[in-house]
Amino acid sequence: MPYAVCRLQWTDTVGQPDDDRVSRNIALSGRQADRAAIHVFTGLPGARIQPDTGRVLWRKLLGCALDRLQIAKRRCRAGTTPSGRHPGNGVSRRGLHRAFRLSKAVYRPLFELVWGADFHIRWPGNTEQICATPGGAARFGGSATPIRLSAEDRTKANNIYDHWGQSISKYERSNRLSPFTSKFDAFLKGKYTLTPDEKAGYDLFKGKANCNSCHLDGRSTTLTPGQTDGGAAADTRPLFTCFGYANLGLPLNPRVALFYQTKPDRFGFTPNPYGFAYRDLGLGAFLRSAVNPNSQWVELAPTSDGQMQTSTARNVAMTPPQCPTTEAPGPYFQKEFFHNGYIKSLKQLVHFYNTRDVYPFKVTSGHCRRERQKRVDCWPMPEVPINIDMTLGNLGLTDQEESQIVTFLQALTDGFTAPYPDMNTFTGQCMTGGSAATQGNELLIPAPQPLPPCASAICGVQPLPAPHPIP
Predict the structure, then answer these.
(1) CB–CB of 118/159 below 8 Å?
(2) Among 14, 99, 165, 179, which residue has the least CB neighbours within 10 Å?
(3) 3-state DSSP call for residue 379?
């Protein structure tokens, strides 16, 4: 594919240019064009090659190139804010690492063209070594910016990093990742009629089960029988999340690998020196950390311990078509739900919301009494037993109502009105057997009983958890 010139254009799903209005010619050598085209087109459904004009119509080129490029290395930990910036010093080590990777990428000519950024940065000879070293600022004398750049070069890196973040944001908002093509979206447009179980599940979702108080669906919540929804429907496509935080009271999951990563790796980095004395304090841990960009937020940590961000309910039931469900007996595709993967099916997820406070036991995971079924009529104690959301836990749903909510959640899967072009590429194995209520119980391993006390490096950091210590 030796193109002397490539054409760069962003288009939407119907082949019309986006509002970006980016459409320009790029002078690339044959080899550069060949490599760039291969990398982009291998992950780009729907892109078209027009050999008669010797030009390439790039569909969402920049987002796709970033998708294919392995730039977000996980080893560069700590010493940064969530945005990758370090207060007062511009881009931090993690941000500089990304700018460095982008400057070495095969797509650099494309990035330079679209962003208009100057990639001519005098990187120190030890940049690669610094970016490959885990442990963050602690390994570099507390410096979050150990890559020594001039003010001019750091400004260039800032600019590259900003463009990178904006491009990722654009890609995440694109139809490639957020197509809004589910049954529910068709229902909102008047092009699909929900089945009786889907409709019953939706009524429960925005009513008795109170799901849409956090997983916002653009409608009001009607909690009591006979209550009328007098609210106006939102004029935007619902995202089914409030982007808020809550502690749902989930038990500690002893299958999380972090609990066993207690020894130094080949770099001398120990992910979790505390073993089962570690507790995931979620938002509270972030607020106490050095990466919190606002010191005034620190005082909010005790009321935020254990809180995790509310995920979208969209695509929660998405599976490859070969394994058409997340629910046993299947054939099903095994997924994990909630922040720590403790729940193994949507049926269990709804049942947890419904009965967490009906069947609570002061045991750790794997230690329910023999006459009790795990995840059915025995819920172990919460990992973080403070700030627990009490708007759930005893919803009074019947077994049928739980299943109807699951049916509605399945109607939130994209690909109904416009199937994904690469949806049949799954080559793994489906699972079969069992029931959704007890799915995964045979793989459950016991946590220590009792758990070691929470490590002081976790739960002893000021301001201390309140109103009482975390055991």
Answers:
(1) yes
(2) 14
(3) strand
